[in-house]
Design a protein that fits this description.
Layout (H helix, E strand, L loop, with lengths): L6 H6 L4 H12 L10 E7 L2 E7 L8 E6 L2 E6 L20 E6 L4 E9 L2 E8 L31
Antiparallel strand pairs: 1-2, 2-7, 3-4, 4-5, 6-7
């Protein structure tokens, strides 16, 4: 049973379209996920994350990092080598790749660094003030806000 109908979910909820789309995308994708290049995702702070991708053999000019339609796209294209080399063993894979990461709401890419054969991409989650919890004052039934009366104290 690979096909699920999310129409009742769309009718009964407001603002959860992305969750249904995500579930639909996960359930309809094929079972084979690309394993090249290997990567890590780590939480570096309360609202900060880092994606580290092993890109041995690529220069920073051959790598591309782009944010498009709520997803992070990392690409690599090896430049053509002018000299023809004869390898006895070739274990470093420098084939072109494209790796996509879905970004959550309010997550932005803070920067990317290429060092020691690793591409580090820093992400930061920034929740706007409008989305943060705030306290709503409850008014009286007549529409007036409650007023606290101050008692006068006599000073001797």
């Amino acid at each position: 049973m690979r096909n699920l109908d999310f129409a009742p979910l769309y009718r009964a909820t407001v603002g959860f379209d992305r969750i249904a789309d995500l579930m639909d995308r996960v359930l309809t994708s094929d079972g084979t996920q690309p394993t090249y290049p290997p990567y890590n995702i780590e939480k570096t702070a309360e609202d900060a994350y880092r994606i580290s991708i092993a890109v041995a053999g690529f220069t920073p000019e051959e790598l591309g990092v782009e944010v498009r339609d709520g997803s992070l796209l990392v690409t690599a294209r090896k430049a053509q080598d002018e000299t023809e080399r004869s390898y006895l063993h070739r274990g470093i894979a420098t084939r072109a790749f494209e790796r996509r990461f879905a970004l959550a709401d309010h997550v932005r890419v803070a920067g990317a660094v290429h060092e020691h054969g690793m591409l580090h991409i820093d992400l930061v989650r920034e929740v706007p003030e409008a989305m943060k919890p705030r306290r709503i004052e409850i008014a009286h039934a007549n529409g007036a806000t409650p007023v606290l009366e101050a008692k006068a104290e006599t000073v001797n």
